[in-house]
């Protein structure tokens, strides 16, 4: 995993991720200037560095570029968590400590994520008959009110 983003890199990537479309240096600059004094060339350099590091791709548009995120903020956060966890000499203790730091909302998000990951495969080989699938769906809905889509937030 690449090293964590610096403070200014994170400020720039936050906008790229939030807008979820190709952006120009000028757009990022104007939004950043609402919070701080910053030069066009600084934003241009940061976006070029992010491109060199593989965080954004760019496409020429006239004499400028449009930049677009290569992956999501969620993927970035997951990579940071995985990297930190892999540094521990006791993975279970690290997880227990991490869970202890979580808010109730974060614990609920974790519970929801575990449910999503544990959903059965949907390939034809694993589906079984329509009758069996209906029984499993009924059992799941009895144990866990709300549809799978509702629990996943979709």
Keywords:
mainly alpha, 154 residues
Largest sheet: spatial strand order: 1-2
Structural class: mainly alpha
* Major sheet: 2 strands, antiparallel
Q: How many DSSP helices?
A: 9
Given as residue ranges, the uncertain stretches (5+ residues, pLDDT < 50) are 126-154
N-to-C series of helices and strands: HHHEEHHHHHH
- What's the average pLDDT? 82
Estimate percent helicity. 55-70%
Which shape, going by the Cα principal axes? elongated
Quick one: how many beta strands? 2
Q: How far apart are the first and last residues' alpha carbons, in Å?
A: 29 Å
Radius of gyration: 21 Å
Q: What percent of residues are in strands?
A: 5-15%
Model description:
This protein starts with 6 loop residues before the first helix and ends with a helix. α2 (25-32) crosses α3. The chain contains 9 helices and 2 strands. A two-stranded antiparallel sheet has the order 1-2. With 154 residues, the chain is mainly alpha-helical.
Please give a quick description of this structure.
The protein is mainly α and 154 residues long.
Topology:
Blueprint: H1 7-19, H2 25-32, H3 40-52, E1 56-61, E2 64-69, H4 73-86, H5 91-101, H6 104-117, H7 124-127, H8 130-143, H9 148-152
Antiparallel strand pairs: 1-2
Helix pairs in contact: 2-3
